[in-house]
């Protein structure tokens, strides 16, 4: 179901990782009859954001060959080995000028629920940064208003986004949902857990 909001929002999907812990490109793991990244992109497109960006880095040539990227704008993350913040920095210039901010999704997290997006939309209306508080911890998607783009552009490293969230410099909101953090894939055990969750 498309999102309903007064805000114009870009969806940014981070899919530039090198999958070092997994040992093969996790973007291309089989999932729901396609790939893990196909499933994530399909889910995000279903939310109906004004624009959808996908960052690629590790395994980019193979991903471009196999994954359906026709409905998204691809951003090459040239420094993806420096951590996820480098992918965000790479994508900032590709965000449409008329959007109010972006939701940050993970490319290996294909089961984000509509309820989480709806709750985050409510929080985004009155905040510069918003995160989702799930039953078992804080997780994606995150919301970043355009007023935060400057500081985001200065980030370095893998945990820099979390440091920005915890800095206290910005009006930050927490959207609460009753479900657990959606499963993502860093290891083979994570992938097996995700497959098992499908029943």
Blueprint of the fold:
Layout: E1 9-15, E2 30-31, E3 34-35, H1 36-46, E4 51-56, H2 60-66, E5 73-76, H3 84-92, E6 101-106, H4 114-124, E7 129-134, E8 137-145, H5 149-152, H6 160-165, E9 172-176, H7 188-197
Parallel strand pairs: 1-4, 1-6, 4-5, 7-9
Antiparallel strand pairs: 2-3, 6-8, 7-8
CATH topology call = Spore Coat Polysaccharide Biosynthesis Protein SpsA, Chain A
Given the structure, what is the number of helices? Answer: 7
The H/E string reads EEEHEHEHEHEEHHEH
Give the uncertain stretches in residue-range form: none
Distance between the termini: 24 Å
Q: What would CATH call the homologous superfamily?
A: Spore Coat Polysaccharide Biosynthesis Protein SpsA, Chain A
- Which percent bin holds the helix content? 25-40%
Rounded to the nearest angstrom, the radius of gyration is 16 Å
Q: Count structural domains.
A: 1
Please, what is the average pLDDT?
89
């Amino acid at each position: 179901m498309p999102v309903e909001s007064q805000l114009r929002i870009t969806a940014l999907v981070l899919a530039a990782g090198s999958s070092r812990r997994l040992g093969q490109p996790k973007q291309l793991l089989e999932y729901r009859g396609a790939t893990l990244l196909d499933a994530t992109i399909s889910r995000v497109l279903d939310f109906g954001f004004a624009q959808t960006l996908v960052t690629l880095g590790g395994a980019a040539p193979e991903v471009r060959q196999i994954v359906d990227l026709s409905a998204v704008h691809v951003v090459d993350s040239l420094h993806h080995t420096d951590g996820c913040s480098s992918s965000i920095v790479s994508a900032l210039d590709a965000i449409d000028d008329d959007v109010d901010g972006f939701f940050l999704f993970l490319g290996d997290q294909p089961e984000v629920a509509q309820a989480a997006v709806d709750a985050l939309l409510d929080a985004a209306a009155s905040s510069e940064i918003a995160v989702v508080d799930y039953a078992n911890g804080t997780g994606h998607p995150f919301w970043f208003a355009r007023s935060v783009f400057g500081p985001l552009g200065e980030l370095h490293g893998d945990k820099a986004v979390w440091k920005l969230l915890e800095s206290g410099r910005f009006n930050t909101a927490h959207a609460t949902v009753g479900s657990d953090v959606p499963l993502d894939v860093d290891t083979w055990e994570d992938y097996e857990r995700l497959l098992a969750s499908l029943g």
